[in-house]
Amino acid sequence: MIGRLRGLVLELSDEDALIEVGGVGYIVRCGVRTLANMPELGAEVIVHIESVTREDGTRLFGFLTKDERQAFVSLQGVQGVGPKAALAVLDIMTPMELAQAVASDDKTKVGRASGVGPKLAQRIVIELKGKPLTAAGVFEPIGYSPAAVVTTVKPSVNGESVAALMGLGMSEQQSRQAVDVALKDLGPEAELAAVIRASLKALGR
């Protein structure tokens, strides 16, 4: 089974990339986000591969990050979600944004993906809870009281800091506690990078 390709980008289309490795050209199906971030033709690229075998053969799906590949795998584990729908979801959000949507039960955001209706979006949000959505580890949303969140802090900094820590394998509870400690030291106007560094320090990382 192919897990990664490292080669030259020979061709790019609306759905596929042709990657040459050792004189062999591999047709790799990619999402819009992946294709948009591909290097120019003739340049070298590393593509993380997930092989999907169906009755009509095996197709290679490619991603520029391990996180995207893991999210793609987990999405396909949801009943009714095939490769096309999984790519559609990852076209409109990153794995971390997907994790945040799952944690907040935001089926509306997931439902914005092409071909994903309200019922399927709801199923995705429900079935992805506790599933790995990044290569770093399992995403484990657990309950917390909204009143415990520091309301004077910019929501983006607070939320993105928590999401970043969860992407590194910490639980939501650990992440929120560490971010709270960091924000008490740095203040509510602290920059995202500084909050993440202070949070990791609080966790002893």
Automatic annotation (TrEMBL):
<dbReference type="InterPro" id="IPR010994">
    <property type="entry name" value="RuvA_2-like"/>
</dbReference>
<dbReference type="InterPro" id="IPR013849">
    <property type="entry name" value="DNA_helicase_Holl-junc_RuvA_I"/>
</dbReference>
<dbReference type="GO" id="GO:0006310">
    <property type="term" value="P:DNA recombination"/>
</dbReference>
<keyword id="KW-0227">DNA damage</keyword>
<dbReference type="Pfam" id="PF07499">
    <property type="entry name" value="RuvA_C"/>
</dbReference>
<keyword id="KW-0067">ATP-binding</keyword>
<keyword id="KW-0234">DNA repair</keyword>
<feature type="region of interest" description="Domain I">
    <location>
        <begin position="1"/>
        <end position="64"/>
    </location>
</feature>
<dbReference type="GO" id="GO:0005737">
    <property type="term" value="C:cytoplasm"/>
</dbReference>
<dbReference type="InterPro" id="IPR000085">
    <property type="entry name" value="RuvA"/>
</dbReference>
<dbReference type="InterPro" id="IPR012340">
    <property type="entry name" value="NA-bd_OB-fold"/>
</dbReference>
<dbReference type="GO" id="GO:0006281">
    <property type="term" value="P:DNA repair"/>
</dbReference>
<dbReference type="GO" id="GO:0000400">
    <property type="term" value="F:four-way junction DNA binding"/>
</dbReference>
<keyword id="KW-0233">DNA recombination</keyword>
<feature type="domain" description="Holliday junction DNA helicase RuvA C-terminal">
    <location>
        <begin position="157"/>
        <end position="203"/>
    </location>
</feature>
<keyword id="KW-0378">Hydrolase</keyword>
<dbReference type="Pfam" id="PF01330">
    <property type="entry name" value="RuvA_N"/>
</dbReference>
<dbReference type="GO" id="GO:0009379">
    <property type="term" value="C:Holliday junction helicase complex"/>
</dbReference>
<dbReference type="InterPro" id="IPR011114">
    <property type="entry name" value="RuvA_C"/>
</dbReference>
<comment type="function">
    <text>The RuvA-RuvB-RuvC complex processes Holliday junction (HJ) DNA during genetic recombination and DNA repair, while the RuvA-RuvB complex plays an important role in the rescue of blocked DNA replication forks via replication fork reversal (RFR). RuvA specifically binds to HJ cruciform DNA, conferring on it an open structure. The RuvB hexamer acts as an ATP-dependent pump, pulling dsDNA into and through the RuvAB complex. HJ branch migration allows RuvC to scan DNA until it finds its consensus sequence, where it cleaves and resolves the cruciform DNA.</text>
</comment>
<dbReference type="GO" id="GO:0005524">
    <property type="term" value="F:ATP binding"/>
</dbReference>
<keyword id="KW-0347">Helicase</keyword>
<keyword id="KW-0238">DNA-binding</keyword>
<dbReference type="GO" id="GO:0009378">
    <property type="term" value="F:four-way junction helicase activity"/>
</dbReference>
<feature type="region of interest" description="Domain III">
    <location>
        <begin position="157"/>
        <end position="205"/>
    </location>
</feature>
<comment type="similarity">
    <text>Belongs to the RuvA family.</text>
</comment>
<protein>
    <recommendedName>
        <fullName>Holliday junction branch migration complex subunit RuvA</fullName>
    </recommendedName>
</protein>
<feature type="domain" description="DNA helicase Holliday junction RuvA type">
    <location>
        <begin position="1"/>
        <end position="62"/>
    </location>
</feature>
<dbReference type="GO" id="GO:0048476">
    <property type="term" value="C:Holliday junction resolvase complex"/>
</dbReference>
<keyword id="KW-0547">Nucleotide-binding</keyword>
<comment type="subunit">
    <text>Homotetramer. Forms an RuvA(8)-RuvB(12)-Holliday junction (HJ) complex. HJ DNA is sandwiched between 2 RuvA tetramers; dsDNA enters through RuvA and exits via RuvB. An RuvB hexamer assembles on each DNA strand where it exits the tetramer. Each RuvB hexamer is contacted by two RuvA subunits (via domain III) on 2 adjacent RuvB subunits; this complex drives branch migration. In the full resolvosome a probable DNA-RuvA(4)-RuvB(12)-RuvC(2) complex forms which resolves the HJ.</text>
</comment>
<dbReference type="InterPro" id="IPR036267">
    <property type="entry name" value="RuvA_C_sf"/>
</dbReference>
<dbReference type="Pfam" id="PF14520">
    <property type="entry name" value="HHH_5"/>
</dbReference>
<keyword id="KW-0963">Cytoplasm</keyword>
